[in-house]
Amino acid sequence: MSATLSISPASDLIDAPRRIILSGFTPGSLVEISARSRTNDQATWGSRAVFQAHPDGTIDLDRDAPLQGDYEGAASQGLIWSQKLLTPPAPAGAPGQDLVAPISIAVEARGEPGESARATLEQRYAAEGVRRLELEQDGMVGTLFTPPGPGPHPAIVYLNGSGGGINEANAALLASHGYAALALGYFGAPGLPSHISGTPLEYFGKALRWLRAQVQPAGGFVAVSGQSRGGELSLLLGATFPDLVSAVIAYVPSSVVHGVLAAGRPEEGRYAPAWTLAGEPLATVWEDNPALASWAAIDGSPEPRRQAQAFVDAQNNPAAVARARIPVENIRGPVLLISGGDDGFWPSSDYARQIAEQLRENGHPHPVEHLDYPQAGHSIQPPHVPTTFIAKAHPVSGVVLTAGGTPAANALANADSWKNVLRFLDHAAKASLTT
């Protein structure tokens, strides 16, 4: 019997778990399994693990833990998330980048001489029939993905964080699950400012109105979701435009308004306002806050830098916190908060607890959920992607920061949070049909 390597399903959405089974290898022999891929930013990744074949000559990644390699314990997706960066990505916006193109992962197994098997796993962001529409209108820039079929569909706006740009991949994946999903840019993309500085919240209100008019969402449901600064922004939008936002999903968010931090114009410094409303800057937690002194030690530390302590220190000034607190009690819909207890960027677990407590104290009449992953870091996202690249240069400032967490914990947070995001959206969208 010749050696075989089976992947099921071989081609599916990126969030679909895969079953990897080997058979036909010499019983008790050592078999090295490797994975290699090129992601859509043109980075290359690879992982390896060594297993011992069972007496029947099989290896099942759902069942079997590797003896050595890039991950530990039985983990069906371990070869995927444990991939390490081999060659760096191309600069953002470089020619030839299609960030929603399928990703192929080549999996190879080698055992005793003459025993080898290969297979390819394909991860897709866009299901068949998902449609793409570029938005470049009245100053708005983004990409709308709509599901197959006539609709109407519930809708969602997805916002990136302090790296800027337009997250087409996440929007395409949400469209594949039945949502008209607008990946909305607000800086760091062609046709937009290069920095987050002084971004008017009215821009997002205009985009929300455009989306409602464009897709006529089922039940009038339009959620807003974002990660990091995008999580802070999602909460701000829910509180500022409660008639336009039906639900909020905030990944590793802040409970208070911050300045530009690492994403502003270099001459401004990190405390300049990131957001404005009616032409006035929103108050930030850093104004007249003694915690400003905390940055000196962080700025003087070697890279990669862990900056969360400065944000913890800023919370010790009650007046500054009260002034900059996001008025989440104004949100008129369900709220889902996702945080990492080992967040190296800022204390997202503490922030999320503060947000949930504020909503409860104000008798929020809609569901409030907080998913906290104690060992995960700042980079929580849809699942089945490499989670090993924890320290990286910030896309705007270039400073190397650590996001925190471990590859295994971050992978677990990705998988668990994503299934709960889809559940939360499904329940919220269905509830809008009955109100």
Tell me what the structure shows.
The protein is of the alpha/beta class and about 425 residues long. It has 2 domains: about 5-125, Acyl-CoA thioester hydrolase/BAAT N-terminal domain (Immunoglobulin-like, Sandwich), CATH 2.60.40; about 130-430, Alpha/Beta hydrolase fold, catalytic domain (Rossmann fold), CATH 3.40.50.1820. The chain contains 9 helices and 23 strands. It has helices spanning about 80, 170-175, 200-215, 230-240, 295-300, 310-315, 320-325, 350-360, 405-430, and strands spanning about 5-10, 10-15, 20-25, 30-40, 45-50, 60, 70, 85, 105-110, 115-125, 130-135, 140-145, 155-160, 180-185, 200, 220-225, 245-250, 275, 280, 335-340, 370-375, 390-395, 400. An 8-stranded mixed beta sheet has the order 11-12-14-13-16-17-20-21, sandwiched between helices. Strands 2, 4, 5, 7, 8, 9 and 10 form a 7-stranded mixed beta sheet that branches. A hairpin with a 2-residue loop joins strand 18 (about 275) and strand 19. The longest helix is centred in the last third of the chain and has 26 residues, at about 405-430. About 45% of the residues are buried.
